[in-house]
Sequence to fold (712 residues):
Amino acid sequence: MDWDNGLRALADKVTAVAPPPATIDLTMNNLSSLSADEVAGIDERLKSELTRRLLRLAGTAPVDVYLDVTLSEGTEGYLIVAQIRRGTNEETAIFPVSKGAKNGKRSGGVALEQQLVWEQPGVILDFALPPAAAGEAPTMIVLEPGRLTFYARKQAAWQIDQAVIIPPARPWLRAARGHIDLSQSLAAGRAGLPGIECKGDFQHPEAVQCGFVSQDTQPWIQGDARVPKAFDAGGDAAGVSLQCDGRPVVLATGKEDWTHSDFIQGYEMEANGQGATASGNPTEFGGPVTSLWWTGIEGVARAVVHNLKTGNYEAYIVTATCSQ
Amino acid sequence: MSRRLAASSAALGLVLGLTLVGAGRAEPSRRPKYGGTLRVEIGAIVNSLDPAAAAANQVEAAAKEKIGALLYERRNADGTFAGTAGSGPFRIAEWEPGKHLALAANTGFVGGRPFVDSVEIQMGRAARDRVLDLELDKADLVEIPPEEARGAAERGIRVSTSQPDELVAVAFVAGRPAADDARVREALARSLDRPAMVNFILQRGGDPAGGLLPQWSSGTAFLFSTAADVPGAEELVSQIGHPPQIVLGYDSGDSLEQSLAERIVVNARDAGIRLTGQGSSEGPSGPASCDARLVRLRMPSPHPRAALVNVMGAIGPLIGLQLAPPAEGASAQQIYEVERGVVDSYRVIPLVWLPQVSGVGARVRDWKAPAADEGWPLADVWLEQESP
Fold:
């Protein structure tokens, strides 16, 4: 259930308890991680739903119904908890609201927007969203420690199409990293883990072959080559082939270890590549960003986040634009 | 290239890759490193690692559970460990029952080789000694009682605190005459000053509990009052006339339980309820003469339905619970109503929520306080430098 449906269900409940033109004394509390602005928006929408049902919002007595609404939060999402009191009768109604990704704010400089495209309990090392051919269903490729999975978008959901099993060179290293490279073309795709590479026509996964390679042939292990060597924000970084006022933009994670929530910050590089300035607001995530790469589209990066609250791995598209 | 040669090349590549990291562009320091021995100290004395062997008390049972999660690859649906010891991230290298356990990294673990080469677990260490060893860099990871967490942090110790996931509650024993009258149970519930228990006994190392699920899990704990209502308790006592004497049992080996029991006696007396505490070393079952017992219940899951089902299963037989647990797929409303039904029976009185507190050494990286359904994440931690 989303906020609109939750608030409508609450308004219907109140209407059932106190038919119009009852007078409602509404109090809104927040015990969740929602910001004051978000709570104010929800408060306005609830008032709108109530007045649309011809209920009157009380400024003074007499009051027919006291409605205490608390926006709360548990492991399974947000909750709208309503305590509805009419005379000596009180009842509690609870409406769950699922969580969605929050968007970053823009305030000049490099503006960042994040879009959650996929999440799963298992480890994601990297993912890719190749451009869909005309008339073809969109596809998504997810690289995991032992598998390269190809998804197709069917009936508004990602469904597994095929999977290529990646044989381990040795028991999987816990620190395994991975990288999907479609820079040549989808037909000449590569997906690598340290010491292993799967390559072939990614439009025909059954033809993809995995084998052992020397890590000397895997330059991605050293990080994104587009990022100037002098740049070091402490974490991972990716050039995104975007320039703001002639300055190349680099996106970088925070520097905390993987037990902390994380963010991606835009940086504008000096022309000589020797200096960088944080630009715009960071976009924040509920866990460490474990992978950050350019998608090949100007200003667009892909990021994998290990959400510390849900335990899931999340795949995000992060879009950088130059704000005015 | 032959398969054998390719494999050798890959192995060489792995070595080269790890070496080149330092030689090329600087690898971010947050990238994990392999090696070293993690030194752990716990208070529990574990005498058997056999999952089938009964633990002497709740403390040993909890420690066995944590160690078992390091030794076994996975669990069965009923929560028991599956497979053989050593199929998990670690295998037993040395074992002196009740004293010392050395674990070695399982290089073949399907979930990936742990970062550390080995783990040394010293058992039966007193809380004060554990903290001291951490400060003297003789230990990397120690358990800290929740009531000592604040003091440890003030001394500069790196303290890791989980979400509060262990409930301490008073459970009335079914069939005991003193617990028969619901007004007696309600009067005791109203008399309790939970915030004072948290502030003074736990030194703010916990939360007052009004319900059977914590706020972070259910999102509805705020609907259960934790405030004392002494006038309400006195009113109920006056209705009863001559309230029966209640005997409250607790584990005499658990200093926290003893402190809480003493506080409950004081709160009850202030409301006119006759209650005495009775310590026992008989473990969680306690002596048969008790009308009520202090119980400690660790959440096996962060999800509210699963956690409530577990609580009801654990204390149901003791308190003679008649309510059915929430069904699979129950809504937040339904879960709340079941929880409300149990709490309003006053057969169990929630007191406080406790977190799992650990002191973490400076060289330990990627330690994350375990969630309610997780054991020690020792396979995920790595050490900034080798053991001294």
Notes: Residues 1-28 of chain B have pLDDT under 50 and may be disordered. The CA atoms of residues 301 and 372 of chain B lie 5 Å apart. The longest strand of chain B covers residues 90-96. Chain B has two domains: 33-162+357-383, 166-354.
